[in-house]
Amino acid sequence: MSLEKFISEAISPWMNHEGPESEIVLSTRIRLARNLKDYSFPIISSIDEANLVVKQVREHFEGKNYDQFGPFELLEMDEMKPNEKRVLVEKHLISPQLADESKKGAVLLSADESISIMVNEEDHLRIQCLFPGFQINEGLVLANGIDDWVEEKLHFAFDENKGFLTSCPTNVGTGLRASVMMHLPALVLTKQLNKILPAINQLGLVVRGIYGEGSEALGNLFQISNQITLGKSEEDIVEDLRGVVLQLVHQEKAAREMLLQSSKLHLEDRVYRSYGILAYARTIESKEAAQRLSDVRLGIDLNILKGISASILNELMILTQPGFLQQYAGEILSADQRDERRAALIRERVKLEIEKCN
């Protein structure tokens, strides 16, 4: 029953709320990497040690409440089917590494799915807090609260000089990875983003695709996060990211206004063509679907398209991924079958929006 609850809906409950700058910043994530004292780190630990870590997490936190977010439920990776794990990856509740490569991996999830604690991924614990819109300070407060709650029961590997010890040297120190998911179609269309990215990298930040490291930036969605965790306080890391994100928001808004002023007809044509394809296509690949959804979301945000929920991008970007398509079908699908079902699902979703307006 627990697993079914987490994989049956594409939209996590926390995603049903809007946050600040939500037309450009879709979500905020704060992640803390932690390891347990006196245990080998996951990259070299034995199965027995990994089992002991899962056992401790289960005993201390499963079924327990933290503020309004509990009770937490523990899901173990080796008790799940491959596609069930894929669905959790598509919802950003676990990482691809936890799904595919971890020894005795597990995840502890809050009821609204805004908090997930991955167990035995690259580190013993990866505490992750998710918020709608741009809420980076709120995310840090919650993550630190969860961190303190966990530390009441478990002792972390910590060095007075280096800070929190982690498997990867780039996470040593605070163990903090702060990131935001941004929709930047106008900066892409005006070819400004490629000029901005090198400057972002020089500031110690990194730009990745929708599923993090090594993933593609589908649908003009980009994940911006810090690279440096050692030698900076959590507050400084968050403030550095905050400044860059606010600049990107400003530049994306300016690029959108420029498109409206200089290329309105072409922009409207692009939006309506994409809307027509989504409304009537009989087969569509995931990459094209993501691009068309991005165009439609831009049209909604600029009032070119009216009466359609802006959440359609968030929802369908997850719902049309391979894991969800196969979960709903109840079987493994070929690429062609997925493309057909993806088109049918999008048509049905667009139809619901049309009926809602009439």
From TrEMBL:
Q: Residue ranges of the Phosphagen kinase C-terminal domain?
A: 24-255
Gene Ontology BP annotations:
phosphocreatine biosynthetic process
Please summarize the record's notes on activators and inhibitors of this protein.
Appears to be allosterically activated by the binding of pArg-containing polypeptides to the pArg-binding pocket localized in the C-terminal domain of McsB.
Keyword Kinase in record: yes
UniProt binding sites for ATP:
27-31, 92, 126, 177-181, 208-213
Query: What GO MF annotations does this protein's record show?
Result: ATP binding; creatine kinase activity; protein arginine kinase activity
Tell me yes or no: is Transferase among this UniProt entry's keywords.
yes
Q: Motif RDXXRA motif of the pArg binding pocket involved in allosteric regulation: where?
A: 338-343
Q: What EC number(s) does its UniProt record assign?
A: 2.7.14.1
Q: Which GO terms describe its cellular component?
A: extracellular space
Print the keywords alphabetically.
Allosteric enzyme, ATP-binding, Kinase, Nucleotide-binding, Transferase
**Catalytic activity entry:** L-arginyl-[protein] + ATP = N(omega)-phospho-L-arginyl-[protein] + ADP + H(+)
Q: Which InterPro entries does its entry note?
A: Arg_Kinase (IPR023660), ATP-guanido_PTrfase (IPR000749), ATP-guanido_PTrfase_AS (IPR022415), ATP-guanido_PTrfase_cat (IPR022414), Gln_synth/guanido_kin_cat_dom (IPR014746)
Chain's role = Catalyzes the specific phosphorylation of arginine residues in a large number of proteins. Is part of the bacterial stress response system. Protein arginine phosphorylation has a physiologically important role and is involved in the regulation of many critical cellular processes, such as protein homeostasis, motility, competence, and stringent and stress responses, by regulating gene expression and protein activity.
Q: Which family does it belong to?
A: Belongs to the ATP:guanido phosphotransferase family.
Return the HAMAP family for the record.
Answer: Prot_Arg_kinase
Q: What is this protein called?
A: Protein-arginine kinase
Provenance organism: Anaerobacillus isosaccharinicus
